[in-house]
Amino acid sequence: ETGVTQTPRHLVMGMTNKKSLKCEQHLGHNAMYWYKQSAKKPLELMFVYSLEERVENNSVPSRFSPECPNSSHLFLHLHTLQPEDSALYLCASSQEKHSSGNTIYFGEGSWLTVV
Amino acid sequence: EDQVTQSPEALRLQEGESSSLNCSYTVSGLRGLFWYRQDPGKGPEFLFTLYSAGEEKEKERLKATLTKKESFLHITAPKPEDSATYLCAVQAEGDMRFGAGTRLTVKP
Predict the structure, then answer these.
(1) For residue A79, which of A18, A111, B23, B46 is within the disulfide window of CB 3.0 to 4.6 Å?
(2) What is the pLDDT of residues A86-95, one digit of tens each?
(3) How many Å apart are CA B7 and CA B83, to the nearest integer?
């Protein structure tokens, strides 16, 4: 138990579907992140939220839409995805935004398959 | 450009055979270097944070060290349950970069 909970753990969706990934952290942290992990590639940062405000968006396609309603919850809304978007999506949190030397703690991830 | 390189890409050891994993980096303004363990199908599990050259940290069979250019994760007398992918990440000014990982297999 890492204190960061992601649901669902596995998701299969068609290219025309709309779905959402959910993340909740119980660590009292102020920053939350979405990362993408593809096979044999380093983790790619997608979005960063600090105190519920989006502070980074690393050139992510608009078919991925994040939402952070409060400092404990983070969503990733998915629509009209492509098969190459199939990957492990990791939610993470840290005390402050990751420029400050804080440790980032990850959830177990959501395996996404786009068919 | 900031870079993080882990080697080897994969490592196979016999149980009890000690070895080291390497993480070399080129960043300006290091804020911290992190080691994680990742089991298949799961998220990365935090192991260590190192902040300055010369720092060392230990946990069970694992020991992490840091110089100005690289970090080593030393594994002493590994067991099969140490099999996992080990990720290194470097945090610099305004950015955090991950290496591609070293996949460790320990055979009984």
Answers:
(1) A18
(2) 999 999 999 9
(3) 16
